[in-house]
Structures are given as structure tokens and as C-alpha cells.
Design goal:
By secondary structure, this protein is an alpha/beta fold. It contains 12 helices and 9 strands. It has helices at residues 21-26, 30-40, 65-73, 88-99, 114-121, 145-149, 159-162, 178-185, 191-199, 236-246, 259-262, 264-275; strands spanning 50-54, 78-79, 106-112, 128-136, 163-168, 171-176, 204-205, 223-228, 249-253. The strands form 2 sheets. Strands 2-1-3-4-8-9 form a 6-stranded parallel sheet, sandwiched between helices. A 3-stranded antiparallel sheet has the order 5-6-7.
Length: 276
């Protein structure tokens, strides 16, 4: 990509902590560890699904930390793989390859731009039993971040004024500016916390703003949606529109864009509902 994008768009957030650390430490393959954990945690209805959490842009998977604690405390195997943030097609292919290593049913969860990724990564994988969107995009075929967001008023993220673009050999990476980060991203968190989130944000390549989505998996897989009513990045009206279009089971919470951080119980409860 030769230059930054300068139209109003939205990318996602949040964060990196793979709950399969025990498997990595023991050298146990992910699929074997998943199968073993599932076999030990039955509800009399078959194995519990594995939960896979996909973060968006401007952070890593650590934003899922409190959600992970709640899910693993209830006996779920949880993974939060790194989302490359290089473009919809390549990011979805990467997550799809990770899903292919997991044995048994899967609940696939995305936050913000991670919703684009799960919408495409789940396609063709019969193990994915539910999609969960946490203040996320749920695109239809051909939609991209920029055009989808522009359909509704309310996003405060304008790439022309809110993002610092830093050139690298493959294009431009975008970072949310510090003076607007808390307002746009996480207004319901303490400033000391948002300062850390800003400093540790992982950039999305500018091409992600224009990458079109493929055929959406939500047309064939049940979906669940958590609407963040105080989201200044993805307008709540857009979230409601996408949830209704997908036929999603929907709950709303008073939360900023990082609802999985400020409202981890609500996020975890919705994920557990999808897993039942």
C-alpha cells in the first residue's frame, strides 16, 4: 500500500494471553491438550467446546485476560491466538489454520476488527458451533471496515486526525493517537489503565481498512452479539444493525469499545451461553 487511508473508519482493539500456556510449557500439542481437558469436563451433554478469542487492532490479546479467568474457572479450554492484523484474508487464513489444530466443538469469539476475522475464519469448519461478537464487526460479503462504519454516525475514530501512520517495508501501520485513545477506545477505564493500553497497542496495517469480507459464516452458524452502548469506535446503532441482520442473540451493556475489559462478566456470560 503506497499511502495511508484518509477516510473515516474503524478498527478494533484489545489484546493477547493464550490460555494454552500450560500446553506449550509441557510440549503437549494443542489438539491433544484440548481433547484431554474436554474429556475431563463434561456436563452430561458431551464435551465442552473450546473457546477461541480473537482480538482486534490497536492492542493484543491481553484484553481478554479477565474473560479468560472466568471461562477457565468454569472448566473451559481457552485460546487467545495473536491476530496478525495484516488484512482480512490473511488474518482469517491464519486463524482458520489455528482452528484446524483443535479437536471437537469450538466457540469462536471476536472483538472489534476481530469480528471481520472470525466471520471469515469459521467458513468451512464444521467444528465451529457458534460465533460471538463482542462490540465487533459482523460484515456481509464485500463489506470493508470503512464503508460499513460510514453507514452510521457515532464513530470518533477518523484516520485523518486520530491515527498516526508509521511506514514499514510492506505499507503503513496505524496507531491511535494518545490524546484521543481513552475517549475513543476505553472511556470507562482508569486513565492509568488506558495509558498502558495505548503504549502497548499493536497496529493494524492500513490495508485492513479497505479489505473486503468474504461470504459470512454467520449465515450458517448461530451467532451471539454483545452491544456496547457507549462505544465511540463502532457506533452502537451499527452494532444493533449487524446483530439484527445476522439474527444474533443479543445483549446490551453500558460499556465502551473494550467491553470485554470493562464488563468481563457480561462478555464471559454471553460466551458461556453460546457454548451451551
Amino acid at each position: 500500500m503506497s499511502s495511508p487511508v484518509s477516510r473515516r473508519v474503524v478498527l478494533g482493539t484489545a489484546a493477547a494471553v493464550a490460555a494454552g500456556a500450560a500446553a506449550a510449557a509441557t510440549g503437549t500439542p494443542a489438539a491433544a491438550q484440548t481433547a484431554a481437558t474436554q474429556a475431563a469436563g463434561l456436563h452430561g451433554k458431551g464435551p465442552k467446546p473450546t473457546i477461541v478469542l480473537v482480538h482486534g487492532a490497536f492492542a493484543d490479546a491481553a484484553g481478554w485476560s479477565d474473560v479468560i479467568k472466568r471461562l477457565t474457572g468454569d472448566g473451559y479450554t481457552v485460546f487467545a491466538p495473536a491476530n496478525p492484523l495484516r488484512g482480512v484474508a490473511s488474518d482469517a487464513a491464519y486463524i482458520a489454520s489455528f482452528l484446524a489444530t483443535i479437536t471437537g466443538p469450538i466457540v469462536l469469539v471476536g472483538h472489534s476488527y476481530g469480528g471481520f476475522v472470525i466471520t471469515n475464519a469459521a467458513t468451512g469448519n464444521p467444528n465451529v458451533k457458534a460465533l460471538v461478537y463482542i462490540a465487533a464487526f459482523a460484515p456481509a460479503a464485500g463489506e470493508d471496515v470503512g464503508h460499513l462504519t460510514a453507514q452510521f454516525d457515532g464513530s470518533l475514530l477518523d484516520p485523518a486526525t486520530s491515527i498516526d501512520f508509521r511506514k514499514w517495508d510492506g505499507g503503513y501501520d496505524g496507531y491511535v493517537k494518545k490524546d484521543v485513545f481513552r475517549t475513543i477506545f476505553a472511556g470507562d477505564l482508569p486513565r492509568s489503565t488506558t495509558d498502558v493500553l495505548w503504549a502497548t497497542q499493536r497496529p493494524g496495517d492500513a490495508s485492513t481498512l479497505q479489505s473486503p469480507s468474504g461470504a459470512p459464516a454467520w449465515t450458517t452458524i448461530p451467532s451471539f452479539f454483545l452491544v456496547a452502548k457507549e462505544d465511540n469506535l463502532i457506533p452502537p446503532a451499527l452494532q444493533r444493525f449487524m446483530a439484527k441482520r445476522a439474527g444474533s442473540y443479543t445483549v446490551e451493556v453500558k460499556a465502551s469499545h473494550v467491553a470485554m475489559i470493562s464488563q468481563p462478566r457480561a462478555a464471559a456470560d454471553l460466551i458461556k451461553k453460546a457454548a451451551r
